[in-house]
Amino acid sequence: MSNTCMTPEMLEAIKDSIQKEQASYDFYTDAASKVKTQNLKELFTELAEEELGHRTFLEKVLEEETFSSPIKAQKTDFRLAEEAIEEKPDLSTDMPFDAAIALAIKREEEAMALYQGLADQITTNDEMRDMFINLRNMEQAHKTRLESIYMNVAYSEVW
Question: pLDDT digits over 28-43, tens only?
């Protein structure tokens, strides 16, 4: 696919998405530097690296003018972000592990909604729409993984 097929709006959407992925990377890097416990530092560092991978993916789309193969939606969605975690906790240096996971889950939910919204706006370019669906699915994979961790931590006393 060449950039001549991409409208200025599509190019702008990709550039905006790159900035959002950079902001997520910055957030998780900052979070990793602020929290005190090693397992939270590792979690936030891993999330930062994944957001950096998304940014690199989008930069490649702009540079090489190509889209990657489809990323499937997760079969399981625990919907904790939507149902169990009502508010996004504030980042603090001594936040409990379950609150840190809840914060990350809410951020992934917001990213999913952003990419779904962008995909929904595109009606004339299937490749571009599919790219935003792929990005949504990447964020959903993070959210699902984090929700699984959250359930193991937050509800461990139930077992």
Answer: 899 889 888 888 889 8
